[in-house]
Batch of 3 targets.
Target 1
Amino acid sequence: MAALPDPTSSIVAPAPPRAGVLPRIRAYVMLTKPRVIELLLVTTVPSMILAADGWPSAGLVLSVLLGGALAAGGANTINCFIERDRDQVMQRTHARPLPQGEVSPVAALVFGLVLEVAAFGWLTLTANLLSAVLAVSATLFYVFVYTIWLKPRSPQNIVIGGAAGAVPVLVGWAAVTGSVGAPAWVLFTVIFLWTPPHFWALAVRYRDDYARAGIPMLPVVRGLRAAGRQIAVYSVLVVVSTLTLPLVADVGWIYSGTAVILGAWFVVAALRLGRGMDPERAIRFFTFSNTYLALLFAAVAVDVLVRSALR
C-alpha cells in the first residue's frame, strides 16, 4: 500500500464564525448531515410497513422516524467531531461547521452525545427497548469500528463500516414486532452490500481529496481499475440479495418486478462506470445509486400496501 500524505500538512485556518442565532442553529443542524439522515429514514418506513403487513400506527412511524433521526444525527455529529482535521483539508468537507469554526469541538461532541441519549430515551418510551438498543448500537459501530478504527487504516473501511447505515431497517422492524425477523435481515443485507459501490463512486470523484487527507479509500490505494471491478461485483451482489426477499417475506410481483428492472439498470450503470472511471461518471453513478435504493424500498412499501388494500 502506498504511503498516504499527512493530512495536517495542508490544513487551512478556519473562517471566522458567522454571528447570529439562525446561522448557529444552521451550523448545528448541518453537523447532523441531514441528507444522510433522509436516506436512512427512507429505508426505515418500508421496513415497518413490511413488518406490520400494512400501515403501522402513524404515531409509531413518527416516533421511530424522530428517534432514528436523533440517533443518526448524533452519530454524524460525533463523526464530524472526530474527523474535523481531515474535513478541513478535503474540498468536499472543508465547509462543514467544525472546519469553519462555526461550532467548537467540545460543543459538537456534547451535542452529539445529547442526541444519542435523547434517541435512546425516546425510542425506549415510544417504541421498545430493542429498537432503542439497535439505534444506539449503530452509532457505536459507526463511531468506533468505522470512523476511528477502519476508515484511517483499511481500504475495506466502507465494506465493514457500512453495516451501521443498514441498521435502521432493523430498528423499524423491531419497533413494530419487538424482534428482528428474516425479512429485516435481508433488507439489512441489501443496504450493507449497496453501500460499498455507492461510496466508492463518491471516492472516485473525490480521490485526490481522500489522498490528501490520508484516508485509504479503495480508489486511492488500489487504483481506479480495481475500484471499478469491485463496484461491478458488489452491484451484482446487491441485485442478487434483493431477489431473495420474496423467499422470506410476503411480497409479490410489484416488488419482484421492480427489483429485477431496477437491478438490471443498476448493474448496467456499474459496468458503464467501470469502462470509464472519470469523476463525472462516478458522481452520476453515486446519485443514481441513491435513487435506486429509494425506489427499491418504495417498491417494498407499495407492494405490501396494494396487497393489503386488495384483501
Target 2
Amino acid sequence: MTDAATPQALLWAPRAWIAGRWAESVLLHAGADGHWLDIRIGTPAPAQSTVLPGPVLPGLVDAHSHAFQRAFAGLAERRTGEHDDFWSWRDRMYGVALRITPAQLRAVAAQLYGELLCGGYTQVCEFHYLHHDEDGAPYCDPLAMSRALADAAAGTGIGLTLLPVLYQRAGFAQPHLRPDQRRFATDARGVLALRDGVRAWQLRHVNAGVAIHSLRAAAPASIHALLQGLDADAGPIHIHIAEQTAEVDDCLAATGARPIEWLARELPLDRRWQLVHATHALPAEIDAVAASGAGVVLCPSTEANLGDGLADLPRWLAAGVPLMLGSDSNVTRSWAEELRWLDYGQRLLHRQRNVAALPAAHDGATAALLFERVLAGSAAAAGLPVWGLAAGARADLLVLDARAPGLLGVPPSNTLDALVFATDAPALREVWVAGRRVVAGGSPIDAAAVAAAFESAMAGLWPD
C-alpha cells in the first residue's frame, strides 16, 4: 500500500477558530508533509494563497466508530417483541456482522467515511473487532478486514486510527464466545500482531493502537497479557465500559466491583486510555479517572438510540477529564448533532438550559465550551501528538457555508452556537485533510461512485 505526497498549500481564511476564539484574516501554511508549518492572525491574503470561501474550524476526531454498523443504521427501529433494549439490538446487529465481506465492508466504510467528513470529522478511530471469515476461520490475509477499512479511508481522504480489539468471551460467566460472535475471536498476541501489521503499511494518515472490547468480553489475565505486550508503546488503548446497567450488575456479581471501579483499581490507566461510554459512573469513579489522566468518549446519539442512559456530563466536565465524541453505531455522522444531543440530554434530565456552559468561559457559550473540550482530547484519542489549527498538527480544516440554513444572518460571534443548536442542514462547503481538499461544494470526492458501491453492498446484505 502506498500514499501520495502532499503539495504545500497556502490558505487564507476571513475568520478561523484559533485557541478558543474567532480570529480575523488568518493565513495557514501547510507543508509538504501535510502538517501546519505556520498560522498567522491578522494577515492580508497573499496573491498566491487560496482564499477559503467561509469561516474555518478545525476538524474533530470521531473517537469511536464501528464502520460495518453503518450497514445496519435505520434497520433496527421496529419492536418485534415485548421488550427492546441494547441486548436485543445487539442480537439483530450480529446478522450483518456474520455475513459482511471485505469488499462489502470497504464499500460501506467508504460511504460512511465520506459522510463523516461532511459531518466535520477528519479522523476516525475504528474500534475494529470484525476480523475473521464468515465461518470464524482466519482469512489467508489476517488483515483482510483491516485492509478494507484502510482502503476506504485512503479513497475518501479521512485519517484513520485502527484499533484491533481483544474479544474472547461472551460474558463474565461465559468463558467462550457465542456462535454468532465467531468472527470476533482474538487473543492478546493476535491483537498485537494486527496492530503491528497495520503499522507496517506505513501509510501517512493511518496509525494503530489497540482496544479491549469490554470487561465482560476479556478475562483479566488476557487484559494483563495485552498490557504487558504493549509495554511503553504510546499508542491509544480504548475500551467499552459501563454502557448498560446490566453490565454494571454483572461486573459487581463477578468481581465485587463496578466496571470503572475495577478498571481504575486493577489497571495502570494513563492518558493513552479512552473509556468509551462510561455512562453509569459514580462520582468516586469519575474522580479516579480524572486522577489517572484517561479520557472518556461519549456517543450521545448511539447512547440515545440504544436506550443506554445519560452520562453525568456536569461531573465529567468539572473533574477536568478529557472528553471525546464517537459516532459508534453511525446512526448519526455529524459532530454538531452529537454536541446538540449531548447538551439536550442534560437539559431534559435537569430541566435547565445550557447545562454544560460556564458564564466565565467563552462568554457563557455551551457550544464553544464543549467544542474546545472535545478538540483538546482529540490528539490523545487518535494517538497523534498534536491536533487542531496549530503549528505541527496535521493540516485539517472545515470551511463553513455562512449562508447555510441556521447560519445565514447570524452575528459572526454566534456562528458556533448556531452551527450546533440551530442548523439542521449541511453547513460545510469544504473539508481539507493534510493540506488536500477532500470535500468541495459540500460533496466528498468520487461521491457518486462511492454511493453506487454502497448501494450494491447493501443490496447484497439485505436482499428483498
Target 3
Amino acid sequence: MEQLGALDASFLYGENERVANHIGGLYIYDQSTVPGGMVRFRQILQYLAARIHRAPRYRQKAVSVPLNLDHPYWVDDSRFDIEYHVRHLALPRPGDWRQLCILASRLHDRPLDLSRPLWTLDVIEGLDNVEGLPPGSFAIVTKLHHAALDGMSAASMNTALHETEPGLRLGTPEPWTPGREPDPMELLGRAHLNNLAQPMRFIQRLAESMPAQARFLAVMGDEAMRSPAPVGPVPVTRFNGAISGRRVVNGISFDLAALKTLKEAVAGVTLNDLMLALGGGALRRYLSARNELPDEPLVTMAPVSTRSRRASGPAAGNEAAAMLASLATDVADPRKRLEAVHASTFSAKALNQAIGNRLLSDYQQFMPAAASSMAARFFAQMRMNSPMRPLFNTVMTNVPGPQHPLYFCGARMVNQYGLGMIQDGEGLFHAILSYDGKLTVTAVSDREMMPDPEFYMSCFRDSFDELNAALMPRPRPARRRKAA
C-alpha cells in the first residue's frame, strides 16, 4: 500500500463531468513483422498479461480516506480483470488518418472508472488507408490517469510493455496474489498519524529550502535587473475559456535529423527551443487566420521533470515543476522568433535553477488533503463561471523516447503520438515525442475551441517550412559567363 502525493492526488480532486485528468498515447504498428503477418487479439491479451508485472500501477486502484482526511492510497485491486481494461475496435472503411484521429478523440473524451485501476488500452484495426503505412496496420490508444504518472513515467511504462527485438514472444503470466485492501478505520488511523507528523516535516522542509530562497532573492535583485523577464502579461485566446468536455486530436511527424540540423543553425538553441518556436509560428498562423492574434506574445507552460534516477520507472508518480516561456507569436520573422524563444527559456531556466525546481511542489505536500480537494473543486468552478486572465495559453511538453525500434507482440512500432489533458482555461495541449529518428507533435484541444485540427497541423507544417527557409537558404545558382 502506497500513498499518493499531494500533486498526484490533485489530479483526482480536479475531475468533474467535463474535465478528465488522464493522459495517454496513440501508437501505430506494422504487423508485417509478425510471423504469419497477423496478430490476434487473444495474443495481445496474453502478451500484456505476461508483462503487466513490470508496471505495478496497472493492477492498483486509488482508495480514498474517509472524509478526505488524508490523500488516497494505491492498493491492489482484488477483482482485477485485464479484459475489462483492454478492448478491441476497428475503423470503418476506408480506414484513413482522419478517421483514426476522430476515434482517438472520442476515446480520449471518456473519463476513467475511478473505482478500478486507472487505465485502458484500445486496439484499433483497419488502418488500411493511412499514408506511409502498409494495409493491415493497427493502432493502440492508451489512457492513463495523471494521478498515477507524469510524462516521464508514462514513457517508462510504455517501454516496459515493449520489446527491443522482433519476434513474437508471448510469455507466461507470473503468479500474482493481490494484497489486502485496508478498511476505513485503518485508513483513518494512518491519516491521524500523518497529520500529527506534518508540522515537523514542514519545519524540516522549510529549513532545507532556505538556501533556495536566498538564491531566488539574489536573482531577483541582480540578474533580473540585467535580463528580461521570461514572459510578460499573458493574453487571452480562444483556448483559455471553459472547456466543453469534447476533445479533438491530431498530430504531425517530422524528421528528427532535419530538426537537429535547424537547431544547429543558431548558436545555443536547444531542440526544445526550436519546437517552441515552431509552435509559436503555428499559433501565429492559426489565430491570424481568424483575426484573433493578440499583440502580446502567447505563453506556454513547459513541464520540467524533477525526478531523480532513484524515483524513475513505470511505478513513479508525478515529479515535475512548471517553466513558463514566451512563444514569440508577436514576431513575424521566423529566425527572430526562434531567438526570442531562446532568450525567454534561458531566463526561465535561470529562475527555476535559482529557486529549485522541487521547491513549490514540495511545499504543496503540506496542504491538508481535505483543503486540497476543496480548493481544486472551488478553483475549477470559479474558472468556469467567471473569465480569468490565464497563467499561460497552452502546454508544450517534450518527452524524449528511444532511438531504436520497439516491438509490441512482434509488430514494429512505426510512430507514437502523445495524448495530453486539457482543463478549464487550458484548452490546448501539445505533446512532443521523439522515437527512432522521428519527432511527433500532437495537439489535444476542445472541439468548440478548435473545430479544425487538420488546419492547425497544416499551420505546423507551414511554420517548419518558413523556419527552414529562413535558416537554410538555398545557394544561388552560379551565373554563366557570356561568351566573348
